[in-house]
Give the backbone structure.
Amino acid sequence: QVQLVESGGGLVQAGDSLRLSCVASTVTFSRYRMGWFRQAPEKEREYVAGIHWDDDTEYYANSVKGRFSISRDNAKNTVYLQMNNLKPEDTAVYYCAAAYRDLQFDYWGQGTQVTVSS
């Protein structure tokens, strides 16, 4: 079992920045593909960003490309999501997720709320 704990959410204004953090409770963090998802009220969950376990290849949804950046620090068992130029449509609960190597995302954090006011 891997436990994930997110932090860093909050209420900001449009154009502001936030950095989300997610700490994983596993000694083999470097073998996990990490991702950030978000879900807004009455909307489907969206895969926002991901970073590969092997070569740190990054993935971004078109809606955040150029504004969000995912990174990881294997020494700290932590994955980050830097969110710049936030927009009201970025308002959602953001979830951290982990997938062992190339398997599906099986582990999820409790979520952190991000609210962007216009």
Notes: The mean pLDDT is 96. The first strand starts at residue 4 and ends at 7. The CA atoms of residues 32 and 100 lie 4 Å apart. The chain is about 0% helix and 50% strand.
